[in-house]
Amino acid sequence: MLTREEKIQSLKDAQVVAVIRKIDPDKVIPLVSALVAGGVTGIEITLDSQNALKLIKESKERFGQEAFVGAGTVLSVEEAKEALEAGADFIVSPILNKEVVDHVKETSSLVVPGVYTPTEMWQAMQWGADMVKIFPITTLGPKFIKDVKGPLSHIPLMTTGGIDLSNIAEYVKAGVHAVGVGGSLMDKVLIQNNDWDGLTQLAKRFKEAVQG
Ligand code: 3PG
């Protein structure tokens, strides 16, 4: 069993977190397998996806050794509880809900609430967040990260929303620890064609991009 600090490190080591939102449920397990084979070991299945809880559980069972599997778009304590029961290693949200932070921090899983301002980042950490997710990031840009890292360098940051191969490296260079990537990694054509090798190659390109 990993300690909380080791889990935070696992999330930082993953660097790229694949955001799996509303993908055909029959495709999710082969998709996760392809992503993990390409080195993308952060897996976030959003709760607004069909069969999300079942898929979190199955992904944990199958890939839990190599991957860090979490639940995304967690808006309430009830949802957080269900995701934790399904085995989620981490709980991510686009918003900052104190009740969710309070609940998850009492468990062995990580909580990564959504924030947008320096005050919200600080507040989330005061309440016990393990990392904060700045969302949506592309309206702020990498310069915002650099500026925030000055006074708030101790806060572990995740960023999500509008990240692709052309900009991911800039965010990592600016000081982000984990980057959530949705649409640009969930390539519709590759998924539709069950081109899992193509997905693995795409995952590798994202990993290469963050590793410089
Ligand atoms: C989402 O809301 O699904 C995530 O923030 C991912 O966003 P993206 O598809 O713009 O990467």
UniProtKB/TrEMBL annotation:
Classification via CDD domains: KDPG_aldolase
Enzyme Commission number(s): 4.1.2.14, 4.1.3.42
Alphabetized Pfam families for the sequence: Aldolase (PF01081)
InterPro entries with a match to the protein in the record: Aldlse_KDPG_KHG, Aldolase_TIM
Cross-referenced SUPFAM superfamilies: Aldolase
Protein's name in the database: 2-dehydro-3-deoxyphosphogluconate aldolase/(4S)-4-hydroxy-2-oxoglutarate aldolase
Domain of life: Bacteria
Pathway(s) per entry: Carbohydrate acid metabolism
Subunit comment: Homotrimer.
Family membership: Belongs to the KHG/KDPG aldolase family.
GO molecular function terms attached to this record: (4S)-4-hydroxy-2-oxoglutarate aldolase activity; 2-dehydro-3-deoxy-phosphogluconate aldolase activity
NCBIfam families tied to this protein: eda
Upper taxonomic lineage: Bacteria, Bacillati, Bacillota, Bacilli, Bacillales
Entry keyword set: Carbohydrate metabolism, Lyase
